[in-house]
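User: Structure please.
Assistant: Input sequence and predicted structure:
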Amino acid sequence: MAALLTAAVAAGALAGPARASTTGGACDASLVAGPGSLIGGLWRSNGGENSVYGCPVTRESGYPDKRGSWQRFRNGRIGWSPNLGNNTLVRVYLKGDRIVFKWSGLGRDWDFFNVRWNKNGGRATGVKTGRLSPWSGQYLMSPSNCVGEGREEACTTTNGGLVDRFAFTVQGCDNTGVFQLGSDCGPWSIPVSIGIAR
């Protein structure tokens, strides 16, 4: 039990400073999204406070300029991106030595996905990735050397601080043309980000 608590605290420290403290493993009930929230539903269905996300450290918040919402957790962030479908959720969290970026609930099926990520607001790196299902997918990468799914990625921008922030967004694409030389892609999701201690 002590080893699990130590691992959870270490993982939480890597995700950035928490705004709310938890005691005895219980989450602050005022930060837990209600039953009508897609973000809260995903968090609960993945194990709540015992999930890869840990306890929430902010309330679920909307955006001032678009539909959608986000919530930060001890070990990552979940966002609702309705521009891709009313049930679309994007999320990012740290698992071991990998950053995991996942998406699900897209409003239609896609042949493949394009992921864009950047470090500390620097130049975006684009990656084409397969799907877990026609409506979902994931992208894994190591923040220490920015190796993504067996591919060396450009990862040189730094902000000179103690935390590097990685931001991710995704779009679905269909192959088009007789020989699949082109593609027809949908809009980009709302970005989600995670802070990783150096």
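The helical segments are 2-14, 38-45.
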